[in-house]
Specification:
Layout: E1 17-18, H1 21-37, H2 42-54, E2 60-61, H3 65-74, H4 79-93
Antiparallel strand pairs: 1-2
Helix pairs in contact: 1-2, 2-4
């Protein structure tokens, strides 16, 4: 797991806390490991790994629906591609 010391703090209310890249990598790795242990296929693990790598700017604390919507709007892909990013981000936060 990620230590509180790995996290940056935000002084403004309503600003989400950005997680340093090393902590993001740890959190994604923990997710992938838990999915592997739950019996997900290697293809599913690869799916999550690929989409979360691109969406890593969204990984932090206190993420809002507006943050996710903004990420999806800014992607240069089809609606199907945007849905794939949404699925990966939703899995990460669930």
């Amino acid at each position: 797991m990620v230590d509180a010391a790995d996290l940056k703090s935000a002084s403004c209310k309503g600003v989400w806390v950005r997680v340093p890249p090393s902590a993001v990598a740890k959190m994604v790795s923990n997710l992938l490991q838990s999915r592997w242990e739950a019996g997900l296929s290697p293809e599913s693990i690869e799916f999550y790994q690929g989409y979360l790598k691109v969406a890593d700017s969204l990984i932090g604390l206190h993420i809002t629906a507006q943050d996710i919507s903004q990420l999806l709007r800014n992607l240069n892909c089809t609606n199907g591609g945007k849905h794939a990013y949404y699925r990966a981000v939703r899995t990460f936060y669930n």
